[in-house]
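Reopening this ticket.

The earlier resolution said the output was attached, but the attachment link was broken on my side. Pasting everything inline this time so it's all in one place.
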Amino acid sequence: MGIFSRRQTDTVEPASGAGVSLAQAGGAGVALDPALRALHGQWTIDRPHSRIGFSVRHAMVTTVRGAFADYDSALYFDGANPSASRAELVIRVGSVDTGVEQRDAHLVGTDFFDARRFPEMAFRSTSTRHEGGESFRMTGDLTIRDVTRPVELQLDYLGSVLDPFGFERVGFDGTTTIDRTEWGLVYNQRLAAGGTMVSEKVRLQFDISAIRATAPDGTG
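Inline output:
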């Protein structure tokens, strides 16, 4: 989720999708690129060219990766005043896909997400600050299984472009690492040689291509 605009490239692909989010940026004394002003307005995520995923160590020796296919989001940028930007992402946990059907069924069951009781997880931004260059730090509330706790995302802006279909597009990455047990995801198995089957640390990854949904003046 890196938001605020810097590089210009010149081709990318079609659009469709929902939206993701961002929030306050207020790096006092940190110069912002003038191109940020052009990002003012509402944006939506182009799902076919984005990924909202995670990775976790399995059996202490390998990494399992997965992603969520079904989500809604809202994203507003104010390039002149990044601290006025805001973001929200609501994910249907039943859409989790790790490439293994049996593992996905376990994740949506009561040991982990318990999707029947808690069908959604959400991120809602609360503040963002510019850390210099193309890097930003976003703080927000992450809710899983009705437990809400603050998290910080490292955001990196990747570029902006007018694609061949006439869509104004920006790209950004966001990452954070959480302790899943703090959200009630406590299932595990001990290994005979020591350690656990599933790491408590989970890395969340947001690879986002966002398309302008409104004109820079907020209309349309």
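Reporter confirms the inline version is readable. The longest helix spans residues 101-108. Helices lie at 101-108.
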